[in-house]
Write a structure and sequence with these properties.
Blueprint: H1 7-16, E1 20-26, H2 27-32, E2 45-47, H3 54-57, E3 60-62, H4 66-74, E4 79-81, E5 86-95, E6 100-109, E7 115-124, H5 126-135, E8 138-140, E9 143-145
Parallel strand pairs: 1-5, 2-8
Antiparallel strand pairs: 1-3, 4-5, 6-7, 8-9
Length: 148
């Protein structure tokens, strides 16, 4: 036999059901969108999620906390709800699990003095990607984020 929830039970349920889904992105994928790989170390990163499905990129959760409460009081309009979930774009989770690899055109001077353009491997390791994002501003969907 069940009982009706007390006011305290209702309050606890409201608090525990206030997790917010936040952007969960891989750092290497953001670097991948930089067109000029020579400039990646001095780039202000911009990223758009317009071509991505919300349920594929808002996969991290952040529990309702004092930090979220304070942020919501400072910034208006960066939250929304669906039937089953609450979302916020005030916070992001960046993962650094992959190195970034690509081929890049480089001018190489051969032994005979001839200048030749060749495709060479280009790599930025995940530690350097982390440093890039922790020391620079990243702009996602016209919102600027910085590490704090």
């Amino acid at each position: 036999m069940g009982h009706d929830p007390t006011e305290e039970d209702v309050l606890i349920m409201e608090i525990t059901n206030n997790n917010y889904r936040i952007l969960n992105l891989e750092g290497a994928y953001i670097v991948k969108r930089v067109e000029n790989k020579d400039k990646v170390m001095e780039t202000k990163f911009e990223y758009s999620t317009a071509d991505r499905k919300v349920n594929k990129i808002y996969t991290a959760t952040m529990p309702y906390s004092l930090e979220i409460f304070r942020a919501f009081n400072l910034v208006d309009g960066e939250t929304w709800e669906t039937e089953n979930d609450k979302f916020t774009s005030l916070f992001i989770n960046l993962k650094f699990t992959k190195n970034f690899f690509c081929k890049e055109s480089k001018d190489i001077i051969e032994a005979d003095g001839k200048k030749v353009t060749k495709l060479v491997d280009f790599e930025i390791n995940k530690k350097d990607i982390r440093t890039l994002f922790y020391t620079n501003v990243i702009k996602i969907d016209d919102i600027e984020y910085c590490f704090f």
